[in-house]
Design goal:
495 residues; alpha+beta; D-amino Acid Aminotransferase, Chain A, domain 1; 5-stranded mixed sheet; 15 helices; 20% strand; disordered C terminus
Length: 495
Amino acid sequence: MPFGPYKDFADCKRKNQGKVEDVDAYCGWLKHKIEGQDPVFMQFIGQPELWLGLYRLEFLATNLLGLKLIDKEKAEAALAGKDVWKKDPDAVILDDHRWMHMWEKTVSRGNELFISKQQLKKLHDMVVAEMAERRLDSGINHKTPINVSILELGGDLEKFLQERKSFLVDPAFINLIGSSVLGKENADLDLMVHSTRNEDYRGKLLETMPEGLKETVDFVWDGGDPNGPYIPAYELWAVPVKNPMPMEPRYNISPMAPIKPAQPTHAIDDPRDLLEDGYYVTKMGGLRAMVHRKETQVIAFGEDLEEIDLPDSLIEAALDLEEPKTFIMDGYLTKKEGGYVYYMLDLIWWRESEHISQTAQERHHFMNKIQTSESIQLAPSLYFNNRRDAIDFLRGEEGPCLLIPNSSGYPVTGNADWYLYNRDKELKLAEGADAKIRELVDSGKWENLSADERFSLMTKRKQIEPLYPFAQMKTTKKGYSEREVFGLESVEDLA
């Protein structure tokens, strides 16, 4: 009877003659493993080059050292409540724990296992408890739990998928409306789609039409009802997908892979340059770093995408986070009271999802869920719901301040639509520009400035008259920019 790549027992002996001292024992062991679907062995069913090594390892453990490694029978006995590890030495406990995580990988790849995910998690917790009772490091400071996937087929989800029915979403998804008139040549064929503009709908519908009609069709996109006579043309149905399986979206970033920290592309010294939006305002200071965690691994990258050596206290704090166990943080590292603190500015990966396309407000919602500690804290920041409030706050600030608009995403290029505010030390906003304008005019330097420079100063004036700087320009030929004359429709009086 065939097993694995062999036609029968004799075929196994013939092909392995000379490779192992007792070929009968090896082929008998191999046949038993394959036909019995041994969970440990089935990890390597696709790697026959490793089978001989597994045989020798098990032979050494069982026959020479007297150790019984975990197998299906031992696992089922443990789940049934039997104390299967009571007499096992520490080496066996540690090895069984290692096999638990190998079984976890088997399940995560979609392969079948003799126990469910929930049973595997329970079995893993039992091994960890045994290690903790023996005061083994892996039990006391255990950081690699078995995680049951958030999305898995089974239970109510499987029942739902099996009992799905088609249903009607919109009885008049596409209507014929407009100017199609009987007997009129070259009349347009207007199709009103009950949807916002969707090029996929448009392209797929045109593919179904005869060539002669494609050029005459015009699309009208409107979620409401027609305003005149119409003919219902298409019904929108929700049709069950065949063979549904969990799928992953296409990601632009991934944990443990370096990504440039977002940098502001707008440098301003006048807060009135802000556009209308809500703003997170943060005073930054320290070493910018992107901190990645993926289960038990932690790594950080700097602005040059090179790896940064994190303090042990920060690594431990990142690993101690119960939720999420996988993330990418953006922030900066500072020294505080003899220790190090990492201040979070942004969070662009949470669990198994990428958040770069979400708004800053949505990303902050998840960031606020992270349990802070002495080593990991939220960056001190203020949120202003509108531009006016942000401007009022910045009037009394020197900077530098990072301003993240509420609606902004997190670009993977590193060039973010953020602002860096830093007050011009030569021009205090609270004092205005009056004194500087008078000084430039009286010294004759005003005319040597560019129109943009003069305009910038005039926007910051407090009491000075709009026409004051132009008095000396009446007889010059250097000219002026019309926008420099604030609120005037004509500048004839200046000539």
